[in-house]
Amino acid sequence: MTVLRERMRESIRVRNLSPRTEKTYIGEVAKFAQHFRKSPDLLGPEDIHRYQVHLVDEQKVSWTAFNQAVCALKFFYGKTLGRDWDIRHIPFAKLPRKLPVVLSRGEVGQLFERVTNFKHLGIMMVAYSGGLRLAEVAGLRIQDIDSKRMVIHVRQGKGQKDRFVPLSPVVLEVLREHWRINRPRNWLFCGQRDGEPITHSAIQRFVKRAGKAAGIKKRVTLHCLRHSFATHHLETGTDLRTLQLLMGHSSLQTTSRYLHVSKEKIAAAKSPIDQLEDFATSA
Q: Active site residue: 226, 227, 232, 233, which one?
């Protein structure tokens, strides 16, 4: 699959998709080919259907993993090979609509109190105070922290988009202490290997440990802090359009899902039973 792999890589790069997308797509097509033990250019729609059934019934993959495979195959056959059969007939799985896990302000405080490592604390505070994604936090460089304008420059976030988010004075002081202790030279949060950023898995491990140490029963992840950022903003009156820009969402519909987990918004919605005055009086 070497020649096909290179063709697919070129197709991805000319469309300016992220390196992470490139790795995922190529890996998914490789797994598809390995399943049938054939070159993928010799396979077709019926094989894709059988592979989807295999993923669901035998592999029992998550819906997210299932749809990643579908996206990769659609791209390979539609964009790389330009097959004339209808790519739209390769179905996606319908994702279950789950509400995001959100921490209360008190739980966020508990979490931060349990972290004594300033690099770890800086990562978690940046994620919560700016609503950054895991990859965005890990990819920060020292020059992205603008203390004069009090903003953080998030470069090439999801969808290859740049944006600015506010830099909290509290977070700035923690980052300065982190710099004083650890002396990062390029990446703001360095990994164990010199000259490389901290890995995503390393971040998730210490965030999970911090959640357990704080006695929080919810599943605590870095993305959980991003969800909490969005929900707490809505609860303090930030409008959806502003929040959309801060979060880096392409669609306002994506941002609006946080309305469903904002307790202030829910509490402000009056139940229709409260409008039944005659019933209330007689009761």
A: 226
